[in-house]
Amino acid sequence: MIMRSSAALALLVLAAGCGQPATTTAVPAGCDPTADHLTWSPSTTTPTLTNATLFTGGRETTLIDEPYKPSITGVDAPAEWLNRLATSLQKTAGPPVRANSPEPIPTDLRIAAPAELQMIVYTGVDRVAADFEIRCHPTIRGTFHGWSTATTGVVSCNNYQPTLPDAFGSLALKLCPPPTAEPSADSADAIPFPEVTPGG
What span is annotated as the signal peptide, if there is one (predicted)? Predict the structure, then answer.
């Protein structure tokens, strides 16, 4: 009987905990992210792939399709705060900080490459995040999520890179399928690097 009562109590506690949604702080009336009330913590920049497509043997396989959308977390902020916080953080941090959504990857790319070549065409952004505090009543705290730069590139999965890949290229190379056979030096030299140009 005691064991049954304990189990029932545990189920009630779990049900109560699972039923509680994640909470965000509401913005009090008159609270505004003005320069004299707003302070920032150091920002972080993280290269992130938003789209990656594997091209092999005339086939296309989508590996990543996660468009990046700037946001504010931790506080239920008005939509216009995104641009205002981006402008403020840029003045504080220095590099560009953007609050609009990045342009999607072009859909009319022309790819010139041998059929035996595996390659990944990718798009990525440098995500920028920083915690902020606004002296209101009560004090408002949240996190801004924006971006600074966007890039599109291509990497070959056949162990041949004409240049050392940057952070985005390195992330794309980790998505390459495992090699089925070790190519010889002659065959690697014989496969040219692909050319990717916008269609027209």
Answer: 1-21
